[in-house]
Amino acid sequence: MTLTANETSTTGDASQPLTAQEQQWVDQFMDETTLFLGPDPAIMRSHQITSRSAYEEECISKGVDPIKVDRIRKRLAGALDEGYEMCEAMGAAPGAKWGDLTTAIYTAEGDVTYLSCHGVIAFSAILHHPIRYIMKYWKDEPTVGINPGDGFIHNDARYGNVHNTDQSMIMPIFREGKIIAWVAATIHEGENGACEPGGMPSGSETPFDDGLRMSPFKIVEKGDLRRDLLTFLQHSVRDPKLQLADLKVKIGAVQRIQERVDSIIDEVGVETFVAALRVTVEDVEQEVKRRISELPDGTVSFNQFMDSTLKENILIKFACKVTVKGDKMTVDLRGTGPEILNRAINSPLCSVKSMMMQAILAFWWPDLPRCTSAMSPIDIISDEHTWADAGYDAPMGQSLQASFRGFSALQTAFAKMQFSNPEKFSNVLAPWFNQINTFLWGGLTQHGDQVGNLCADLNGMGGGAKAFRDGEDAVSPLFCAMADTAEQEVMEEEVPFMQLVSKRIVRDNQGFGKNSGGMGYEMIVAAEGTPMWGFMTVTSGSKFSSVTGMFGGYGCSTTPLAMVKGINIYDVIRKDSSKFDLSMERIMNEQPYEGGKYTTSHMGLQFDVAKDGEMYMIAQGSGGGYGDVLERDPEAVAKDLELGRISPKVATSIYGVVWDPETFVVDQEATARLRHDSRQARIARGKPYKEFLEGYVKTEPPKDLLYYGSWGDDTEELTATHFTNNGPERVKATIDKLPLIMLPDRREVKISALEDRIRELELKHGEVVHRKS
Amino acid sequence: MRIPMTEYLIIDLDTERWNCKVCDQDLGDARGNYKEGTLVYDRDPTEIHQSILDPEKYEFTFAPDPTFCRILEFYCPGCGTQLETEYVPPGHPPTVDMLWDIDSLRETWIKRGTKPEVAINYGPGEEAVADFTPALGSYNTHNHSPHSFS
Question: Has residue B100 been placed in a domain?
Fold first, then answer.
């Protein structure tokens, strides 16, 4: 167990204390002979703000005028938004174009003081890590140092990032030889040289499959971009143009923000400026403590179960207990499943925390300045080497699988935590959809460029139902309220595939409830005219719903990946344009294209070579529903029915509504009768809780289910299946005693099963086959 | 005094009991797990999230796999309102999702000095009006709580 709030690095063995002299020798030896400066646990485990520096103390002691601080904050917000818009307008990465980025200003010690109003708020809980690393290791390092005009780049989440597709440009602000602040721009660049194009490989099996592993290093020296290092980076990724273009964009944006900061300092003076940065951070921390103290004391628990490693279906738990006591909040993640050492779903704790911050600053208290300190008063208890607190050696290519669960844990729990509190800063809300259901792609374009990136449809997540209205359809991703789903037609000029269906709502793909969750749409893509192209999908939730409902509402459907191979849809359409009436439901159920191979699978598709005109189909998910379905306004049900958003079966069997099929007029009396009967049927079939537990609860997971995590909430032991020479073996132990968890190659598993079947059939039919091994 | 803790659950600070907001059914000790006072049903998730792709042809159809996922439905025994749902693997114990410090809750509301049915809302915005008066108004007005407030 690690209590990260008070984490400090430890040295020495308590049983054999060193003398002061011995300790000095050890420290000197370690300083002079360090082999490798990996991620520093003292930096990486802490999400608290630093204490005031002597200079900050001096600046604040000269008096702080709140009005002036507010003016400085607003000027900074304007400067950061200007930098943000520069990145969005000029950025080459698809992520930049739709707003998956941020700009930020930090105190000298690296605490985020303010983030751009648009963009990804999660960065406010993460980018202090690389700055603290730079300050601790490179500031006084003779071969590095920090000078005016320098810029540091970094992407590796092990050193503090949301995930490895994001690249930062971090530059100091100097006054009189002293660092007084930092400015940074971070963009979701996508391509990073990982084992699959697009930067988020679902297929990574070692950390070295995850692509670029940039610890923070200096790539801009006194204003000049270092060509040697730039070349190394370009050489390491599939899209060298993108690497260069966005480095320049970020440098330009940061320098513009620095110009604005210069003019603020010219106006108010350095000391007032430094005081304003620090006071903002401290004020937010105090206000968060006050808001926590307004919440009712108690504990809210929420378990999530993810159904995929992105290579095979398993169930892995994300456990979370949130306890409020006075002005203290504790988030306890113990019980969460172990890291899986050859799968991409693991996340470092810092990335999980960053998505918790996304919940806090976007869904709890969106009015607060986006500061590191918004999470300072919250203790987070987590076991290292779980999949949400993975170690250095775990692959993390698709770490969003764990970190987005961190978001859902806090976003979902908060509806219960804040419900009875009169002082609310956000609406009571059901869970937001939490999977990036989109296509990643890569290969050679129609222009001969090698590329790798993704479609903006990940931004079309369905919103959770509100307590007083339905959730919005395909409204925004959980990580970026203002993100755009982009113009697919613009993308089609650059990439050799079309979205044949781009934004069609999938009927019944709804989180049912008194208020329904926002719905998701389907996407059908097919490539043509390229010698090499492929698609990937990187999400879970095909067997177990990704989000639940709230207060009696239901969660989302599961979402499949469907494919039609062996045909060219473009040829079909060219011959007969009337065949351009596509939907996943119609294509897969009617199988209209002769010779096509129609398949479904879970949503973990490793890079799959797409021949001309082969179709790949997925759908965005919906937000969770709110409240009892039998309380939904019957007129709203009839309207959904008329619009084709739900089927007659759902209207009757889920919502209990009776209507005239020709006019869609609700029969109020028959509906009331049906709903009354439905309630009585519930009372008849429901069992008293204790009796239910006796029949339902089992002492362990179903035998054939690969399950990882605590089974129930009253145990410190985790259940896991590991694979021995004798095959799978289920074990139950605390995290420190579990064996290393690695899963077998799924193709070998499949081949082995097929071989067994062949032998079974040979035996059945008496065929004797002599095989040599 | 009665405090709405969720859309359908109320804590009565005088009796220290959980109650259903819709029918006032007693659901157990407010210091404990309200689920103990409910009726529970193990729902096959394919009945709720029904297949959109043909389940005869395909393994993945938009419907959850019932060998991976069950939906526990918690009903009020008095009126049949679905108070809560929980998505769990088959046989996994239900989560104790809320435990509140009743003494602290009482102290907070006495200090607030406001009526919960008036004070509690669904958050910012003109639409976010939560009207708990039908469920709480007469009780909180006519019952004389030992911890009265103005």
Answer: yes
Instruction: Tell me how many degrees the CA angle A510-A515-A521 measures, rounded to the nearest 5.
Output: 25
What residues of B are in contact with residue A292 (Cβ under 8 Å)? none
From start to end of A157-266, where are the E strands? Answer: 166-175, 178-188, 217-221, 224-225
B45 and A424 within 8 Å at the Cβ level: the answer is: no
Dihedral-angle region of residue A747 (phi above 0 means left; psi in -120 to 50 means alpha; beta otherwise) = alpha
CA distance B145 to B1: 6
Residue type, A138: W
What does the pLDDT read at residue A532?
Answer: 94
Count how many residues are written for chain B: 150
How many independent structural domains does chain B possess? 1
| pLDDT for A544 | 98
At residue B143, the pLDDT reads: 55
Domain that holds residue B21: 2-142
Please report the pLDDT score of residue A580 as a whole number: 80
Report yes or no on B109 lying in a domain. yes
Query: Quick check: A524 contacting B, CB < 8 Å?
Result: no
Of B28, B9, B13, B20, which is closest to residue B112 (Cα–Cα)?
B13
The CA distance from B59 to B64, in Å, is 10
Residues of chain B with pLDDT under 70: 141-150
Taking contacts as CB-CB distances below 8 angstroms, the residues of chain A near B107 are: none
Q: Which of A218, A269, A268 has its CA nearest to residue A247?
A: A218
A366 in contact with B at a CB cutoff of 8 Å?
Answer: no
Starting at the edge strand that comes first in sequence, how are the strands of the sheet with A304-308 ordered? A304-308, A313-318, A707-708
Tell whether B121 is covered by a domain. yes
The answer to ipTM > 0.90 is yes
Bridge partners of residue B71, in order along the sequence:
B43, B87
- Would you tell me how many other CB atoms lie within 10 Å of the CB of residue A765? 7
B41, B79, B125 ranked by CB distance to A679: nearest: B79
Q: Which residue of B has its CA nearest to A546?
A: B87
Query: Which residues of chain A carry a pLDDT beneath 50?
Result: 1-12
Nearest CA in chain A to B11: A420
Q: How far is it, in rounded angstroms, from Cα A184 to Cα A169?
A: 5
Model confidence, pTM: 0.95
- Which of B6, B114, B125 has the CB atom closest to A422's CB atom? B114
